[in-house]
Amino acid sequence: VGSHIRPRVMAPAAWGIPFGLSLSMEIGFQKAAYADETWSLEIRPIVDKQWGNLYIAINPTFGVTLKSQYHNSVPTFEPNVKVSYTLFKNAAFGIEYYGDMGPVTNFDQGPQQNHAIFLAYDLENNPKWEVNIGAGFGLTPATDPFVFKVILGRRVSWRKK
User: Fold this and answer.
1) Which among 108, 112, 46 has a CA at the least distance from the CA of 77?
2) 60, 91, 124, 137 alpha-carbon torsion, rounded to 10°
3) For the segment 20-77, what is each residue's pLDDT rounded down to a tens digit?
4) What are phi and psi of 13, to 5 degrees?
5) Taking the C-alpha atoms of 124, 78, 25 and 55 in order, what is their torsion angle to the nearest 10 degrees?
6) How do residues 69-99 score in pLDDT, each as one tens digit?
């Protein structure tokens, strides 16, 4: 369908913030056969917290179309939420919500909004890699009824050791 690259920067632990705070900027390409927008930019602030085995993340995301058949560049509001629980040494299971409310200047009506719930699995056996797999189910007529996703991420530390 396409490819995305998502660099993410995190606030250092030395700042003493009682929760995780980071910013992710994603640029992506989707084939025109699968999406109206072929090039997009996503601005994703991330606020998260780990309590033992429980992890919660809230992402008030904004999407910007860079190239589309509609030539619309008004940012859209795309909230995301993740709740997961580590059950085994290297496996977390969770529920993820992905939404798209529409343009920030005028949200879409309910049935035209995109809302999906994913059942997700996170493989956590290597601190340098992130693997997230999920099956998603659309909740509105505008949402794809079923989506399977795989996210593979590489963690990089720019600090000198």
Assistant:
1) 108
2) -40
3) 999 999 999 999 888 888 999 999 999 999 999 999 999 999 999 999 887 677 899 9
4) -60, -30
5) -30
6) 876 778 999 999 999 999 998 999 999 999 9
Report strand pairing: 129-138 vs 146-154.
antiparallel
Q: Distance between CA 127 and CA 93 in Å, rounded?
A: 17
Residues 6+ apart with CB under 8 A from 56: 48, 49, 81, 82, 83
What does the alpha-carbon distance between residue 52 and residue 137 come to, in Å, rounded to a whole number? 28
How many C-beta neighbours within 10 Å does residue 37 have? 19
Per-position DSSP letters for 97-139, written without gaps between them: EEEE-EETTSPPPGGGSEEEEEEEEEE-S-TTEEEEEEEEEE-
